């Protein structure tokens, strides 16, 4: 039995919690939820006897075997080290926070010391297996991620605010960023977690190129991943529907978290 702790019960955390409460994740039970706010899902969890707490120490005291983080970059930075230091497995969904090299090195170092495993979900991207395979012998040459989203999903992102870029009244596509995954993840914290996953699986944050496009005319969030190396070339395009309650999150990211939990405890695993 996998005892699951959840940090953040928004779009992704809420979808996972609902799946557990609906008995759609066999072999998984909720040990507890950490969230500073309450909603329909946390109320339902409490009615089912699941503690809802506000401190990571309280969550770890419930002895979860794995903690799913789904509350944003700052939550992963604030709580991730404590989870891993306790020897608890961690499934972070705010992977973009790992673009901070100081935090990343510290978190991975703690995992090595305690033996905790940090899982990275393919989430809304996929193709991480191709990236890992093509980079296995250092023969990966180029990785370019292009994320195209409706302006509503990008409004208020730090990079746009800092550079005075207004996307609210666009009538045509506009490339608002073109640079390293490091800068993309740190300045578009709600929109580039998949770029972080691609970076970790492949060339790293500095050598992975990211383009962010605001397009008022697309019906779906689109991610295109281009990979080149000694193996040849690969291109994957996903046109994802946004989560109905949060346009910054794709529904596939929620499904990816659920699939990752299934994979963690399965006797047949895809690696």
Tell me what the structure shows.
This protein has two domains: 2-119 and 252-265, 3-Layer(aba) Sandwich (Rossmann fold); 128-240, Dihydrodipicolinate Reductase, domain 2 (2-Layer Sandwich). The chain has ten helices and twelve strands. It is of the alpha/beta class and 271 residues long. Helices cover 35% and strands 26% of the residues. α1 packs parallel to α2 (40-47) and α4 (73-85) packs parallel to α5 (101-114). Strands 3-2-1-4-5 form a five-stranded parallel beta sheet, sandwiched between helices. A hairpin with a 2-residue loop joins β9 and β10. The model has no long low-confidence stretch (mean pLDDT 93).
Q: Looking at this structure, what is the CATH superfamily of the largest domain?
A: NAD(P)-binding Rossmann-like Domain
Count of separate DSSP helical elements? 10
State the CATH topology of the largest domain: Rossmann fold
Proportion of beta-strand residues: 25-35%
What's the total number of strands? Answer: 12
Number of domain modules: 2
Q: Unreliable stretches, pLDDT < 50, 5 or more residues?
A: none
Order of helices and strands: EHEHEHEHEHHEHEHHEEEEEH
What structural category do the secondary elements indicate?
A: alpha/beta
Radius of gyration: 18 Å
Per the principal axes of the C-alpha atoms, what is the gross shape?
globular
What composes the largest sheet?
5 strands, parallel
Task: Give the CATH class of the largest domain.
Answer: Alpha Beta
Helix content: 25-40%
- Average pLDDT metric: 93
Q: Write the CATH architecture name of the largest domain.
A: 3-Layer(aba) Sandwich
Distance between the termini: 21 Å
